[in-house]
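Write out the 3D structure for:
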Amino acid sequence: IRADLLRIDGNLSLAQKDLDVAIRLNPKHKHVALGQALMAHDRGDSAEVWRWLTPCVDDAGADPMVYRLYGQACCALGDTLAATRAWLRIEPKDPDLVLTLTEVLKRGNAESREQAIALLQSEWERSRALVFRSALARILAQNSRLEEALELLEDGRRGAKIQVYWDMLEAEVRQDARD
């Protein structure tokens, strides 16, 4: 915790020294890995973030920041599918999830985007969480599948009490299709 506070205050050399001590005391502790990953993230070193967090992503009780940073690192390293998997581990009610998923998937190649879409569709069918419907609609639109995206929205619009949400989402989806 002290290393993180030092890092936030800009005392990077002291933060690294604290992390070095923590590594010597308990090299496999998840907070050490997250601390090192945060330092690497601040330096813009995605490969180092990936290296530190790869052992942590299978931990069901991991801090959501682990999945955020790991997903960003995977995306930067070109692994859109791994980034999507990491982001799907975050609580579905997280407001940043849709934006992050749509941004991550804009960067991937066509094959990895299709794999990520299939993964997201499966998650949508399993959970029916609104966040997955929104993300899936936007991602379908970004991938030249506007009609599928609009059908997904129309299905959600039926019976909805607040139509303005669906109107706003449809506008975003149509914009994604143009971009």
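The longest helix spans residues 110-127.
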